[in-house]
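If you are new to this repository, start here. Below is one unmodified record pulled from the training split, so you can see the exact layout before writing a loader.
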Amino acid sequence: MLDRNEGKVCDAIVRRLEEREEQERTALRWPEKENHKSPVEIAFKLRDQLYALEHTLIEPFEGHMRMEAQTERLFAPITSALKDALGKDALFELHLRLNALEGRKSAELSRVQQAIIAWVTATAPTVPPRPYPDGKGTLVGPTLVENIPLVLCRFEPPIIPGQYFQIRHTVDNSDQLRAERMKAAIDKKFPKLAAWKKDENAKSILVLEQNDIQLTNPSTVADTYLRLATAGENRPDETYLVATCIDPKWWIWPIMIDDRSYFDIAQTDERLHWEVDPSGLNDLTKAKVEASQFGG
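And here is the target side for that same chain:
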């Protein structure tokens, strides 16, 4: 089962804010332990400014985490066979319907997996490179292999250094399902953060945790979030996306900082993402964390 990493994700964002403001956190609080009427994950100060930080794990659709629990059996043999077999000049991305391999007995599953591996191996050299690295890919397919439609996409240079093959699951109505899940998170989290802003003059910070790499990326998250967040009220001051599915370091992207979006920042020379080593982070939401550890 995919993990929730809320405590360490919160610490990653606090450290990012400390670096930006050139201040260390003080007065670290756990509002849920205080029986606060709006129990965000943590509250803390940088200088004299109070911050309220709330975390939520975003799923592309209801039940995604349960389905991803089958990854090791269904998809890991394909990824293991291809991750270093296609060269190191590009990222090859196999688009595969999420439920395509479910419900198959072991012998049939192995046969289908081997057929997919053989098709990708044979097809990869035929996918043309792009003449310039613009973040878009060239593709071959869809092609039916064992009655499963497959598409192979090439990105050059690799999107993530050292990663040369990945599977991207496809789901019918994925945009609608993502929007439904995002709206549910917004409806639950925005009011709590708004209360801290109104009642205690806190800066409100929402942190979205992404632990799925097949269906989620910062562009799709930003597009969905901005469409929903800007249509209503009580938008947090800052929103970040933390990808805890990337190994060995997590990646952090700003989705919205005040009135500037991920897409606005992408058009500037500013840094668009930060990397953080999760092994050096503290779990801020553990009940027995001592405030004195963090200067408060």
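Two things worth knowing about this chain: The CA atoms of residues 28 and 144 lie 56 Å apart. Residues 6-61+175-294 form a domain with the Trna Endonuclease; Chain: A, domain 1 fold (CATH 3.40.1350).
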